[in-house]
Design brief:
The chain is of the alpha/beta class and 477 residues long. It has three domains: 278 residues, 2-enoyl-CoA Hydratase, Chain A, domain 1 (Alpha-Beta Complex), CATH 3.90.226; 74 residues, SH3 type barrels (Roll), CATH 2.30.30; 81 residues, no CATH class. The chain has 14 helices and 15 strands. The strands form three sheets. Strands 6, 7, 8, 9, 13, 14 and 15 form a seven-stranded mixed β-sheet that branches. Strands 4-3-2-1-5 form a five-stranded antiparallel β-sheet, with no helix packed on it. A hairpin with a 4-residue loop joins strand 1 and strand 2. The N and C termini lie far apart (70 Å).
Length: 477
């Protein structure tokens, strides 16, 4: 028999800070990805290139493929890599057409051509490739701080291609399971706040961090929990053969205990914001509901090789296939299925399914295979010497910080405010210094510290400090 015990909670309030407009702006940064078809790869760059001048002062040379009222699509060459970029008209100051400019044409195939990939030019213009691999628990081993540090390092190294490798499980799901086993309230852990902070980096802050934003590629080994939204900010997602992506789950069970009308509005708002992420990245928005809503049944069929989604049980006569069931009774996933990412109460995509649904561009076992798919071939230079130290250093520092916090709590509890006035004053000074050190650690690792430590919020710590200061002011010799 299956069990209902494995409910997940999704705290989506953090996502509400990001307006849909910012999603689209951020997508314009990250969607500078190759859209190379056999027809496009045979094209020759103009002898006198087209040119656009952006409002931030950048000058972009290449071939204008398509111009609409809102966007300009160009084929450019970055470090010997032919790629296509899309710019919003609002970012463009002026447009200059080169000699021999023909009619713009729209690329028809998203997948890079394997033959051209293996014929990548060799020479001084080797692509500068930066690989940042995040593994462990999302919300703990991957957080906004190490992501920002990795992006800033990639910018210093003038990376042309940024490969973000994800091998992450949900730390917050793990904590909630522990709480349930101990009979405690699951709490509202801020996994989606953590997601929102990283999405802000990828969607918006990239423009400030990089002079020229790199081509961003996600390679998914595991992207479970809140981390599954991150790849959707890029149009280039690849999977490892054992890759899995999803496991958000149970948004429809969130916000319990409040007015049902208000609860449904909050759920709807979170879903719409999450859908905006998918749409801005060029992915079907139905994927969001399938990944997040436990009580919904989703099916799909293929028409012309493209998935068509429908909410409801599959109709075999129409060739429909079940994506997710209702998670009720015997349909409820077992704990073992949840841990392995094999359940279907909510959608967790495998490499094959992600390819079928149009989320993944391909399945690659090694980094070398991925670079071939990207058209880089062997003509690249790795510039990510510090990446592993940044990521591993964060995890190591977090463990040390938790150890130090335990020590500081013990020291604070052992401080006795007694004796004469001078002794009481010194004791309160030690209390304040101890609490201020706790504050510094909580600020640096906010959201990643194990909640079982019982660390109070920074604001509460500050109130305790102020209370101690008032007690000192009221004390008399």
């Amino acid at each position: 028999m299956k069990t209902e015990q494995k409910k997940r909670r999704w705290l989506g309030s953090g996502l509400l800070r990001g307006a849909v407009a910012s999603l689209v702006i951020g997508a314009a940064v990250l969607t500078g990805v190759p859209v190379v078809s056999q027809q496009a790869s045979a094209a020759v760059m103009l002898s006198t290139p087209d040119q656009i001048i952006l409002r931030d002062g950048r000058v972009i040379n290449g071939e204008i493929l398509e111009e609409t009222d809102t966007q300009i699509k160009m084929r450019i060459s970055v470090a010997g890599i032919r790629t296509e970029m899309t710019y919003n008209k609002s970012e463009v100051l002026s447009v200059k057409r080169g000699e021999g400019a023909g009619q713009a044409q729209q690329a028809q195939d998203r997948r890079p051509d394997r033959v051209d990939a293996r014929r990548a030019d060799r020479g001084a213009d080797a692509a500068r490739v930066y690989v940042a691999e995040f593994k462990g628990h999302f919300g703990r081993d991957m957080a906004a701080t190490p992501m920002r540090e990795a992006l800033e390092d990639a910018a210093r190294q003038r990376a042309d291609v940024l490969v973000i490798t994800l091998d992450l499980r949900s730390y917050f799901a793990f904590i909630q399971e522990q709480r349930r086993e101990q009979g405690q309230d699951e709490g509202h852990f801020s996994e989606m706040q953590m997601t929102d902070d990283i999405l802000q980096l990828l969607r918006v802050d990239m423009q400030q961090i990089f002079d020229t934003p790199p081509r961003v590629v996600f390679w998914v080994k595991q992207a479970l929990g809140g981390s599954c939204f991150l790849p959707l900010t890029s149009r280039e997602i690849y999977f490892h053969p054992s890759g899995r992506m999803g496991g958000v789950g149970n948004l429809d069970l969130l916000f319990g205990g409040m007015d049902e009308v208000v609860r449904q509005k909050l759920i709807s708002a979170n879903i719409e914001i999450a859908k905006g992420i998918a749409i801005a990245g060029g992915y079907p928005p139905e994927i969001i509901e399938a990944m997040a809503m436990r009580r919904q049944v989703w099916s799909y069929r293929l028409e012309g090789g493209r998935p068509v989604f429908r909410q409801g049980w599959p109709d075999a006569g129409r060739g429909e296939i079940l994506l997710t069931d209702d998670g009720r009774g015997e349909n409820a996933d077992t704990i073992e299925q949840i841990v392995r990412g094999e359940g279907n109460d909510t959608l967790t995509m495998t490499a094959d399914l992600a390819l079928t649904l149009g989320i993944s561009r391909g399945t690659v076992r090694t980094l070398e295979d991925l670079l071939l798919e990207l058209g880089v071939g062997r003509n690249f230079t790795r510039v990510d010497d510090r990446a592993e130290r940044i990521v591993a250093g964060w995890s190591r520092d977090l463990v040390n910080a938790e150890r130090r916090l335990r020590q500081l709590f013990r020291e604070f509890q052992e401080i006795q405010v007694q004796g004469d006035y001078n002794e009481r004053t010194r004791a309160r000074g030690r209390q304040i210094r101890t609490l201020e050190e706790i504050q510094r650690l909580v600020r640096r690792f906010d959201g990643s510290i194990n909640p079982f430590l019982g660390v109070p919020p920074v604001e509460e710590i500050q109130r305790i400090i102020e209370r101690i200061r008032l007690e000192q002011m009221a004390d008399r010799r």
